[in-house]
Amino acid sequence: QSLPQQKLLTWLSVLECVEVFAEMGTARVWGEMGRWTIIVLIQLAKAILRLLLLLWYKAGIQTSPPIVPLNREQQQPLHPQDMEDNSSGKDQTYVGRRSSRVVRSLQSTPSLQSRHWGSPQQREESQSRRAEELNQPPTPLGLQETIAESIYITRPLLHLLSLGVWGQRSWKPWLLSAVLDISSLSLLSDLKDLNRRERAELRRRTILLLYYLLRSPFYDRYSEGRILLLLRLLADYVPGVGFVTRPLMDYLPAWQKIYFYNWG
């Protein structure tokens, strides 16, 4: 990735990390008008950055989060003492004569800072596999797939525009957003030879369609009573589940009002 593309991914990641805090903080300071203003500005900035990555840098299907979180266990460097042992040619493993099981030899036991429970081969294989996944280029998108990804990127802006036109109680913004999400997924379903991250992203988008059960006005008219009844039954009749379901019942109304939790 080029340096400008890395900067765009970084700014996009920062926006996704602070969007909920910005919405809640702005609502506390400037009220509803300020809240919706910051929502529009953040969604507009995210759409511009994603369109630049899609159309200019050919980033393909964009994942969430934009930057893969660092796995510190797999990226942990060797301790200097371990590097000296490796350079001295000591055998790191011992193969059992009867079981053929590979275990670490006592002479090459790593220091406490870099110790892990897997065999050296397993660690090397996982590191090489993860490095290969990160270095895989994005799958080239044709015209149909580019349109589908553009629909997915611009869907939040169209949803906000429809909210401004028809209001929050109307079914039209809910239906418009659902049609755009389903259309994008159906157009991308024909794409073959996706890498692992891209397949995981499409599965994530498919699972997120369940959020429409929790989005207004569907939640207010149909889902709320049934979900609360189910949580109450679980809390009353399943031992131990109440520790999770009762706080969730109290949290759902607050969660449902925050735009970036259920629409962003």
Automatic annotation (TrEMBL):
Compartment(s): Peroxisome membrane
Main location: membrane
Segments of skewed composition (Basic and acidic residues): 122-133
Coiled coil (UniProt feature): none
Protein's GO biological process: peroxisome organization
One Pfam family here: Pex16
Family, as annotated: Belongs to the peroxin-16 family.
Record keywords, A-Z: Peroxisome, Peroxisome biogenesis
Domain of life: Eukaryota
GO CC entries: peroxisomal membrane
Designated name of the protein: Peroxisomal membrane protein PEX16
Keyword set includes Nucleus: no
Source species: Fulmarus glacialis
Positions of the UniProt region annotated as Disordered: 74-139
Compositional bias (Polar residues): 106-116
